[in-house]
UniProtKB/TrEMBL annotation:
<dbReference type="InterPro" id="IPR000182">
    <property type="entry name" value="GNAT_dom"/>
</dbReference>
<dbReference type="Pfam" id="PF00583">
    <property type="entry name" value="Acetyltransf_1"/>
</dbReference>
<dbReference type="InterPro" id="IPR016181">
    <property type="entry name" value="Acyl_CoA_acyltransferase"/>
</dbReference>
<feature type="domain" description="N-acetyltransferase">
    <location>
        <begin position="16"/>
        <end position="170"/>
    </location>
</feature>
<protein>
    <submittedName>
        <fullName>GNAT family N-acetyltransferase</fullName>
    </submittedName>
</protein>
Amino acid sequence: MDVTLQWKRVFTPTADDISDVMTVCRSTPAYWRLTEGRLPDQAEVCGWFGLDNLPQGFTLADAFNFIIYCEQEVIGFCQILRGWRYPEQSTIGLLLVVESWQGRGVGRQIYQQIEALVRDWPGMEWIRAGVIATNLPAFPFWYRMGFVDTGERRQELQFLAETVILEKRL
């Protein structure tokens, strides 16, 4: 079921933006339980938008934080970093769809719009996504979107398990 989505790119979040992202976080408890064992707090969510959250050498112009709405309802949030880890690839750092909207094709629709955005950036050849190994329900989605496991793994302190790196050639 395709729906009309509205995307709001956020550089410097307002109180309403933070509230909307917190709504997405509270509406995806299964994800947080599987990946971190707890919901992020408001201070953490605010940190997602700052320069401190970016790798060295990247600016806010390289970070694409989107709050996603259907009509007036907030239904998702995603983060994309242009040119990470190599200039010809970009990485989806986070893609959340509120649980009441999952299983309706909205995640696919959001991903297709992300891919179209990344394809429009000059020189992009690859798109990557990291999936926390304990988030087993996410893997079939990413595989359906055409991603493959690179064999690369990363361990980050806040997660309950390693991050499995997936990628797709554009």
